[in-house]
Each structure stands twice: as C-alpha cells, then as structure tokens.
Specification:
The complex is a heterodimer of chains A (117) and B (107). With 117 residues, chain A is an all-beta fold. Chain A contains no helices and 11 strands. In chain A, a hairpin with a 4-residue loop joins strand 7 and strand 8. The termini of chain B are far apart. Classes of the chains: A mainly beta (117), B mainly beta (107).
C-alpha cells in the first residue's frame, strides 16, 4: 500500500523553528518529485515547496522563501521540511504529497503546526 | 502571482448535476487537476490531466476544459459527494497553484 505519514508538528513560538518529516512506503520514493502543501484553519490549500527526485531542484512559494528548506533522504524514504523564523500565518496543517503524472497522489494525513506565544 | 478562480460554493439536490468551474490564464497550456476534501481528511485526487479519472473514482466524476476554464462535473450527485473541491495547475514559470476551493452542498 502506498502511504505517506507526516510527523513533527506541534506548538512553537513566533520566530521559532520546527522540522517536519514525511515517511514514505509502498513505492519507489527516489523516483518521484515530492511536495509539501499546507492548509490554514478553515482556509484552502496552499502549495509550499517541492523537490526533485535527486534533490537537485527545489522550489518554494514566495511567502516561505528564505525561511523554509525542503530536503529528502532517499535511503530513508523520507521527506523533510525545515521551518525557521516561523510566523503566526504559518499556522496550518502540513501535508506531504507524491507528485506524478496523475497529479498529487497520495497525500499524507497531515501534521498540525501552531505558531503562537 | 498566478491565480486560479473557483466559485466559493455550489449547491445541488441529490440526483442532479453539479458543475464546478476553475478559471486561469494558463489553463489552455497547462493541465488541471481536481481534489476532493471532506472535513478532517486529506485531499483525494478525483480528476487528473483535465479529464482523466483515477482508478477507484466513481464514473459520475468527470472533467472538461474549454479555453481558460476547466470544469469538474458530478452527475447524479449523492450525499457522500458533499465536500470541498480544489482545482490545481501551474503557470509557465513553474510551481503549483491551487484554486480557492468550492464547497459543494447537497441539499
């Protein structure tokens, strides 16, 4: 079964840091682009960042450039999102998703990040 | 920055046809994808490459494209189809964009 499981969310103060992880199983992780997508409470989906199969290309939404870093470890079938200088507006459920010719499929169950003092 | 525009809400009675539109300048040149999201759940892909349906998605879900607008059509809407629906695409400069989402209400 193809599966993505996020972890690492929690409560963090403004200006703090957090590292999200996404564990992949059931498919050849190293063959796919991977993305992070977030959803603020009661709001819509926002694509955050993606990374190429070998990590050589990375792209970010403007609002997180310079603060967030996406990375992957193909040996561990894992995707990461290092989030620094966190702001209240970064509060959201963060999903990882596999990119393919069919679009984003599957998605993980999400991990909640709350930025508050 | 590139935007995809969806109506905030669509309402239909059971058995009727629901149509949800998504507009964007790059849609004539870029594929669109549609996702269904029910409360407390992760999004699920229901249409890819404008009009293709993934395995396991009911035949009542279909997609079409015309110019700068793509449309998700749900024929014979059922109560279980009540959800938020999001379109997704990209512009020529690259990264992904989601529409604002449409809440489908089954009356």
């Amino acid at each position: 079964e193809v599966q993505l499981v996020e972890s690492g969310g929690g409560l963090v103060q403004p200006g703090g840091s957090l590292r999200l992880s996404c564990a992949a199983s059931g498919f050849t992780f190293s063959s796919y682009w991977m993305s992070w997508v977030r959803q603020a409470p009661g709001k819509g989906l926002e694509w955050v960042a993606n990374i190429k199969q070998d990590g050589s290309e990375k792209y970010y939404v403007d609002s997180v450039k310079g603060r967030f870093t996406i990375s992957r470890d193909n040996a561990k079938n894992s995707l990461y999102l290092q989030m620094n200088s966190l702001r209240a507006e970064d509060t959201a459920v963060y999903y990882c998703a596999r990119e393919g010719s069919l679009g984003f499929d599957p998605w993980g169950q999400g991990t909640l990040v709350t930025v508050s003092s | 920055s590139y935007e995809l525009t969806q109506p905030p809400s669509v309402s239909v009675s059971p058995g009727q046809t629901a149509r949800i539109t998504c507009s964007g300048d790059a849609l004539p040149k870029q594929y669109a994808y549609w996702y269904q999201q029910k409360p407390g759940q992760a999004p699920v892909l229901v249409i890819y490459k404008d009009s293709e349906r993934p395995s396991g998605i009911p035949e009542r879900f279909s997609g079409s494209s015309s110019g700068t607008t793509v449309t998700l059509t749900i024929s014979g809407v059922q109560a279980e189809d009540e959800a938020d629906y999001y379109c997704q695409s990209a512009d020529s400069s690259g990264p992904w964009v989601f529409g604002g989402g449409t809440k489908l209400t089954v009356l």
